[in-house]
Amino acid sequence: MKIQSPKIMNYESTRFADIEDEETVYNCLFEGEQKLTREIDFMSFDGCIFRNIDFTNINIKSIELVDVIFEDCDLSQKKFDSRFLSRVVFKNCKLLGTSFIDSSIRDVEFKDCIAKYVNFSGARFERVIFTNSEFLETTFFENKLKNVEFVKIDFSRSEIRNCDMAEVDFSSCILNDISIDLESMRDIIIDRFQAIDLVRLLGVKFKE
Description:
The protein is mainly β.
C-alpha cells in the first residue's frame, strides 16, 4: 500500500526554543535540543522535521501536524487527542503512554518505534502503516480503519474492542495475550498459529 509522504522542502534549521507562539510554523528543521521546557498551545506545524528532540518537558495542549517528520524523538506521555495528523512519519521514536484519542490519522507511518500503553481509542485511521515496532499494551477501541497495514508489530497484551478490523492483516505480528472481542476479530487475516491462540481466547479447548 502506498501512502502520501510528508511534503517537505526548502526547510531551514531553527531552534525550537526560539519559535514564537505563532498560529502556524512552516518549513523548519528542529534538531538535537534536549530537556527543553516550553508550552505548545493552538499551534500548527507544516513541512517541519523534528530530529532527536526530547519532548519530556514540552507541554503540548493543542497541535496540528501536516507534512511532519519526527525522527529519534521522545514523545512519551504526549497527547495528540482530537487532533488532525496528515502526512506524518514517526521514525525510531519513543511513544510510552502517548495518546491519540479521537484523532484523525491520515497518511501516517509509525516505523521502528518503541511504544507502550498507547491509547488510540476513537481514532480514525486512513492509509496508515505500522512497521517493525513495539506497541505493547496498546488500546484500540471503537476505531474506524481504512487501508491500514501492520507489518512486524508486537501487540502483546494489547486490547482491541469494538473495532472494524475486516481484512486487516496481522499475520506478521505478535499477538501474545491480547484481549479482543468477536466484533473486532471478524474477517481479520492471521496465520494458522495465531488462530490457535485466538480461538483459545474464546474458551475453546483442543483435544489432544
